[in-house]
Design brief:
globular, 15% strand, five-stranded mixed sheet, D-Maltodextrin-Binding Protein, domain 2, 19 helices, four-stranded mixed sheet, 40% helix
């Protein structure tokens, strides 16, 4: 299942914040067998691109593409309002029909929806005839794109998101605990976390396992473990919720025991980004938000954490930014200025590495945490197909992948251009395949968020002792079923 909030926030931060050092490349003229013209540098034309923000577009893609094809007139249609809309998928469909962009920058969900409605151009023929090398991409990226397109390829993604298990090597050495390894089960990781001497409060606080920087709900970890085991808590087609089962209860019990003991961090309602500060650089244009939850591993107070590739950049941020970096507190106090007060950096120079995210022994080579950050597609009704295809080739090409290796926090979909991580086990992000069963599960709009909120509230009650686990599961099952019924009815009504 997609983590909408985490993907969206990370996507927009870096789309606006990071300018990739781009250089020009050449293309050959002529006409391929698909009927699309391969553009020469001197060819004239126009290209309308739907992208989140015009400034970010030109920094990341537009300036370099314009240098390659100076006679192609670019126009950017801002989709910022779409991403901020209550129902982004529907708003994007409306924008495509009304504005008729040639090329589109989409989320994975928008891509699937627009492909299903016949609004995107089928790339299979042109990829084959143009000999665009798909074999150099992570297999699961192409698999996900085709699965979301009902077997057809309607877009390309230059990057993807997944998670890995970060660990503090010095902390493991200090307590004589063996390092985690690739392919460990969730049970093994939680057992490792429980071996550390828990100290919940104070400057010497210590956790075995802290949650992701994007985690806001105590149910997230339970869901991740269940999905790794192939469990589902709801079936939209059958219209049933099935959380009150022995398998789910066992997972709830293990995680709740960790919350109670303190070996696993209990995420705050505001997640990793609140109550902390913002690191700024590049003249104030780059901002990395961090808070108490996300800082636990970065400040050396947690032995392990499960997170995405962006954490790699945050761990070395102070060193990378040097004197240009500044830490600002954004706590809401009467004494704080609008820009926040400078404070001492909370980050430590941690001796860290990564291994694959925990898996289930029955499916040791798959993960349910993989998703596509951004998908670039062509409007099926575009009258500028040749220019749009040249743009997609550039955005997803080897040259840009190579230049992005050291400048982007995202994981390159091209496996030959993995991030430069100073000798860290970057392969941990690439070893596992996408778990299609989990990732392609569809639930009614809004249901997953409502269910997570319900489950999270009941989990907290069990942790505090105000209710039992059996009673909590019963309530989650009963109220969750009502939520699914209501969400399904609403979705059906919207389709009529």
């Amino acid at each position: 299942m997609l983590n909408k909030l985490g993907k969206k926030s990370g996507l927009l931060i870096w789309a606006l914040a990071l300018a990739v050092a781009l250089s020009a490349c050449t293309s050959s003229g002529g006409k391929d067998k698909s009927g699309l013209n391969s553009l020469d540098r001197e060819d004239k034309g126009s290209l309308k691109v739907a992208y989140f923000n015009e400034e970010a577009f030109y920094m990341q893609y537009g300036n370099a593409f314009q240098a390659m094809f100076p006679n192609i007139q670019l126009e950017v249609i801002s989709t910022e309002s779409v991403f901020n809309a209550e129902v982004p998928v529907a708003e994007m469909e409306k924008l495509v029909k009304e504005q008729q962009p040639d090329a589109l920058y989409l989320t994975e969900e928008q891509y699937a929806e627009l492909a299903g409605k016949g609004l995107l151009y089928d790339l299979d023929a042109v990829v084959k005839q143009d000999e665009f090398d798909l074999d150099s991409f992570h297999p699961s990226v192409i698999e996900l794109l085709k699965a979301r397109g009902a077997g057809k390829l309607y877009g390309l993604s230059p990057s993807f998101s997944t998670q890995a298990l970060y660990y503090n090597k010095d902390m493991f050495d200090k307590y004589g605990i063996p390092y985690p390894t690739d392919g460990m089960s969730w049970e093994e990781v939680m057992q490792l976390a429980a071996r550390f001497p828990v100290k919940k409060d104070g400057d010497d606080a210590l956790l075995g396992l802290s949650q992701s920087t994007q985690t806001t709900n105590p149910f997230d970890l339970i869901r991740a473990i269940g999905e790794a085991k192939g469990l589902t808590y709801a079936d939209a087609d059958a219209g049933t919720v099935s959380i009150e089962s022995p398998e789910w209860k066992s997972i709830f019990q293990s995680v709740i025991d960790g919350y109670k003991s303190g070996s696993i961090s209990m995420p705050s309602d505001s997640g990793g980004g609140a109550g902390g500060g913002v690191m700024r650089s590049m003249g104030g244009k780059m901002a990395i938000t961090f808070g108490p939850d996300s800082m636990k591993f970065m400040s050396g107070k947690a032995a392990m954490t499960i997170d995405g590739s962006m954490l790699m950049n945050m761990l070395g941020m102070e060193k990378k930014m040097g004197s240009a970096g500044a830490i600002s507190s954004e706590k809401s106090t009467s004494s704080s200025s609008a820009g926040g007060k400078p404070m001492k950096s909370p980050f430590k120079n941690i001796n860290w590495d990564v291994v694959t995210v925990p898996v289930d022994p029955s499916q040791p080579d798959v993960t349910g945490s993989m998703s596509l950050n951004s998908v670039f597609s062509i409007n099926a009704s575009s009258e500028n197909l040749s220019a749009a295809w040249e743009f997609l080739k550039y955005v997803n090409g080897e040259q840009l992948a190579k230049t992005s290796t050291k400048s982007s926090p995202e994981l390159s979909a091209r496996t030959a251009f993995k991030n430069d991580a100073d000798g860290k086990n970057i392969d941990a992000f690439y070893k596992l395949k996408a778990n299609s069963q989990t990732l392609l599960q569809t639930l009614p709009e809004g249901f997953a968020d409502d269910f997570s909120k319900l489950a999270g509230e009941r989990i907290k009650q069990v942790v505090t002792g105000s209710t039992t686990l059996d009673e909590a599961l019963k309530q989650i099952q009963t109220k969750g079923q009502l939520l699914l019924t209501e969400a399904s009815a609403k979705a059906k009504a919207g389709q009529e």
